[in-house]
Design a protein that fits this description.
Layout: H1 5-37, H2 57-62, H3 67-93, H4 98-110, H5 114-124, H6 126-143, H7 150-173, H8 176-205, H9 213-269
Helix pairs in contact: 1-3, 3-8, 3-9, 4-5, 4-9, 5-6, 6-7, 6-9, 7-9, 8-9
């Protein structure tokens, strides 16, 4: 089945949105790292090679080195995509709760009031309302079809519900792949930063004569800061991904429940 032109345009727009967000997040992260965290006012004697001022966390994070902007980019992306997914999935759930909507349409279906169900779907909107309305349109079509027996009509309604659900699911799952990917690679990039920091620390210890105390401190700071930032970003991405997956599962369950009610009603009221 070919996708409608409008749906293809919507998908292209969302891909463009994701690309723009990634670029903007990286630019913002680099600028914050260089000009805010890397401001000389955050360090002793105004020199970024020295220790950060006591209690100055911006300077402390700056000591994480060049891996920090990458981790900051991922953190910004997690926040941005979490906000976007929350708004999208919330809108897809409709204007009222799924439980309230299902209760209403069950009452209407028990009296075989198909037009009232369609009107309720228009008020509900969202993915749930769209799928149920699509099913009700097919419900009316097969209801007056003389050349189909009852089982064929039920199969036709079920197929319509499945197709309508498949059209809605990509919109619900869009951009979740970024959250799942960040949850994995943020820790790996943090580990890379940790290794680089420890290499610098041991290099400072290996110098002849007295060890470079500033280099040693900077190397250890870089290692630990990258570890903390990467683990924190990864944890936030995992929490967000699981939260939105649960929201989608709940919405999918509501769609399945609505479809089950429609099929049962048709089966009970038609011969």
């Amino acid at each position: 089945m070919n996708k409608p032109v409008a749906q293809q345009s919507s998908g292209s727009a969302k891909n463009m949105f994701a690309s723009i967000v990634i670029i903007v997040a990286f630019v913002v992260a680099v600028l914050v790292y260089l000009f805010i965290m890397g401001s000389p006012s955050n360090f002793e004697d105004g020199n970024t090679d020295n220790h950060p001022l006591p209690g100055n966390y911006l300077g402390l994070i700056y000591k994480g080195g060049p891996i920090v902007p990458l981790l900051m980019t991922m953190l910004i992306l997690v926040i941005a995509f979490s906000i976007e997914r929350f708004m999208t999935i919330k809108k897809a759930a409709g204007k009222t709760s799924a439980h309230s909507f299902l209760t209403k349409i069950r009452t209407m279906l028990s009296s075989n009031n198909v037009p009232a169900v369609e009107q309720e779907c228009d008020r509900q909107q969202g993915s749930l309302g769209n799928v149920v309305k699509s099913a009700m349109v097919k419900y009316r079509e097969v209801e007056g079809e003389q050349q189909m027996d009852k089982d064929q009509k039920i199969v036709a309604i079920q197929k319509q519900i499945e197709e309508a659900t498949e059209l809605e699911m990509p919109m619900l799952q869009k951009n979740l792949v970024f959250l799942s990917t960040i949850a994995t690679i943020a820790t790996l990039i943090a580990l890379l930063g940790t290794v680089i920091g420890m290499i610098k620390a041991f290099a400072s210890l290996a110098q002849a004569g007295s060890p470079d105390s500033i280099g040693l401190a900077n190397g250890i700071s870089e290692a630990l800061i990258n570890t903390a930032l990467g683990i924190g970003t990864s944890a936030l991405a995992v929490i967000s991904y699981n939260y939105f997956t649960t929201m989608i599962d709940s919405l999918t369950y509501a769609i399945d429940e609505a479809g089950f009610s429609i099929i049962n009603t048709f089966s009970a009221t038609h011969k």
